[in-house]
Design a protein that fits this description.
Distance between the termini: 45 Å
CATH topology of the largest domain: Heat Shock Protein 90
Order of helices and strands: HHHHHHHHEHEEHEEEEHHEEH
Strand order of the largest sheet: 2-4-5-9-8
Shape: rod-shaped
Number of helices: 13
Structural class: alpha+beta
Length: 390
């Protein structure tokens, strides 16, 4: 399954589809050139009042057809080929091509008019050769300036569409990850534990069922929510640890320390971000230990933020992942560098990405080894309590 970060990278590297000749584009170009011929005919008619307007208009249509054909050649051979290059390449190409375009277009027009009408027309045009040549360069600049403007709008809309696609795919993957947060093995083991406890201790079994129901309810209810109160996340984590304590018996010891006022626990966090941390501590930290161990869940203030810490005195990070110190792994800095080293795989990587996306880069996961053995993972949450605001 493609992760949100992989989706983002794929879409950022994607390029818009290359420009192509379409019926709409041809139609707009034809209308533009026709309007140009009509307007230019009126301008020429002001200087040559004795010349029939139809004659002038036909001459300008011929001029438009010639230059329109040259424009297609320039677009196809140069502009289209440089579409995915830096804008400076296109600008340099236009600066070099525009004079050639104007000169070749005018010379072809003169040759054609001499063949169709006669040399006297060519002589009249050559009297204003420089101005006609300048007008050809101006036409070139206007048409390709308009083209690049339209192309920029197309690129912008394409990027917006890509961003919407990324958001939809990332949300879909995130929801799938949330649904899978309750590990199937954990669910099967819990149901087996409940089954074996029903007759021996019905009260204990009822407590386990209540904890499991709360865990499943929170997992399902949080699917359509971007954030939930930190208090809810801690309650779910406590339910998870309570269920695991029945399975591990005296091999699992739990130490929960909430060192902040109750109103601080209203701080919003992405759903299902604490439970994966304690699950990782149980499965990879305490679980492999023959004598078990202790998992500590601590919430306290750290400067102007709330710090949530999950720590175990289990086997610690695997040596093959590399040493972890000062909250950073020996891997290059990045959204998932520390979580991957915590042996949490996709689960903790997804948790880290969601924390950074919802709460900002300063709220990503951090990990470090615990001396002499064990592992610690934590993240910070903005403090939105009344005390913090004062």
């Amino acid at each position: 399954m493609e992760s949100p970060s992989a989706i983002r990278e794929r879409l950022e590297e994607a390029t818009p589809p290359p420009p192509s000749i379409t019926a709409a584009g041809v139609g707009l170009s034809a209308v533009g050139w026709l309007l140009f011929a009509l307007l230019y005919s009126f301008l020429v008619a002001q200087d040559q009042p004795g010349t029939p307007f139809v004659f002038l208009f036909v001459g300008q249509v011929v001029y438009a057809v010639l230059h329109g054909g040259l424009s297609v050649l320039v677009w196809w051979g140069t502009v289209r080929a440089l579409d995915d290059r830096h804008w400076a390449w296109s600008l340099a190409a236009h600066v070099g091509i525009a004079p050639v375009y104007a000169f070749v277009g005018l010379e072809l027009y003169l040759m054609l008019m001499e063949a169709m009408i006669g040399a006297f027309v060519v002589q009249e045009i050559q009297a204003s050769y420089q101005w006609v040549l300048l007008s050809g360069g101006t036409v070139y600049a206007v048409q390709f300036g308009a083209y690049h403007l339209v192309r920029s709008v197309q690129r912008l809309r394409w990027r917006e569409q890509q961003a919407a696609e990324y958001a939809a795919l990332a949300r879909e993957r995130e929801l799938e990850a949330l649904k899978a947060q309750v590990h199937p093995h954990f669910l099967f083991n819990t149901l087996n534990s409940i089954s074996s406890t029903v007759y021996a201790d019905p009260g204990d079994a009822r407590e386990m069922i209540a904890d499991l129901a709360q865990l499943l309810r929170h997992s399902l209810d949080s699917i359509d929510r971007d954030t939930v109160p930190l208090r809810d996340e801690l309650e779910v984590a406590a339910s998870y640890l309570s269920l695991e304590s029945h399975r591990f018996s005296d091999r699992l010891r739990i130490d929960v320390q909430i060192q902040v006022p109750d109103d601080v626990l209203r701080a919003p966090v992405p759903p299902m971000v604490v439970q994966p941390l304690v699950e990782n501590a149980v499965r990879h930290g305490v679980g492999p230990m023959e004598d078990g161990g202790t998992i500590r869940l601590c919430v306290r203030r750290h400067e102007d933020r709330i710090r949530v810490i999950v720590e175990d005195d289990g086997v610690g990070p695997d040596e093959k992942e590399g040493p972890i110190t000062n909250g950073q792994s020996n891997e290059p800095a990045g959204a998932a560098a520390s979580p991957e080293a915590a042996k949490g795989g996709v689960g903790l990587t997804n948790t880290d990405e969601r924390l950074r996306r919802v709460l900002g880069e300063g709220s990503g996961l951090h990990t470090e080894a615990v001396d002499p053995h064990g592992f610690r993972v934590w993240f910070d949450v903005p403090d939105e309590s009344e005390e913090a605001e004062r």
